[in-house]
TrEMBL record:
This is Endonuclease III. It comes from Maccoyibacter intestinihominis. Binds 1 [4Fe-4S] cluster. GO terms for molecular function: class I DNA-(apurinic or apyrimidinic site) endonuclease activity. Its EC number is 4.2.99.18. It is an enzyme of class 4 (lyase). Its cofactor is [4Fe-4S] cluster.
Length: 208
């Protein structure tokens, strides 16, 4: 690891701490899985509003597995892409009940075989539930990692592998949490506040 990367991580730790924070409200692993499926192309804040009632209406995986598709579509309508999300949630819940006795698997291959679960969702589960070192590539991580010069790729899977090479394992999960905070507050997509950023002197994309 280079001195520059070590300094970037040190400053991120100092600014945002080293606590594992999950922005999606959940009480069980399966609730987090459903919340992450709902979060595709949707804000965490909106998902948390929807799941507040959703998890009361469907208090178990079995309830989701037996849900009426049209009714579930209405329940999650405001998260967008609700046709696909509802279909995937029901299918995913059925697989978890029938194949895994209601447990959410921890292996990447098993998770990505579930309906509606890609690498990003699988890594969120692995990181937050099982504390398996995982790199989650969302829009903030993709954009800011390119600015920092950690990757030149556009494909999330290639970015994931690039970050696994440059970041120490103990920061794989943390980096995502910290970069989301940075991306929401300072390094925003439309108007990045480079002059306010504590990484500006180390950022290859500063001022752009």
């Amino acid at each position: 690891m280079t001195k520059r990367i070590a300094e970037i991580l040190k400053r991120l730790d100092e600014a945002y701490g080293t606590e594992y924070v999950c922005y999606l409200n959940h009480e069980t692993p399966w609730q987090l899985l459903i919340a992450v499926i709902l979060s595709a192309q949707c804000t965490d804040a909106r998902v948390n509003i929807v799941t507040k009632d959703l998890f009361q209406k469907y208090p178990s995986l079995e309830a989701f597995a037996n849900a009426d598709l049209k009714e579930l579509e209405q329940d999650i309508h405001s998260t967008g892409f609700y046709h696909n999300k509802a279909k995937n949630i029901i299918s995913c819940a059925r697989t978890l009940v029938e194949k895994y006795d209601g447990e959410v698997p921890r292996e990447l291959e098993e998770l990505t075989a579930l309906a509606g679960v890609g690498r990003k969702t699988a890594n969120v589960i692995r990181g937050n539930i099982y504390h398996e070192p995982s790199v989650v590539v969302d829009t903030h991580v993709k954009r800011i990692s390119k600015k920092l010069g950690f990757t030149k790729e556009d494909d999330p899977v290639k970015i994931e592998y690039d970050l696994m090479k440059v970041l120490p394992k103990d920061h794989w999960i943390l980096y995502n949490i910290q970069i989301i905070t940075l991306g929401r507050s300072i390094c925003t997509a439309r108007n990045p506040k480079c002059t306010e950023c504590f990484l500006s002197d180390l950022c290859k994309g500063s001022g752009k």
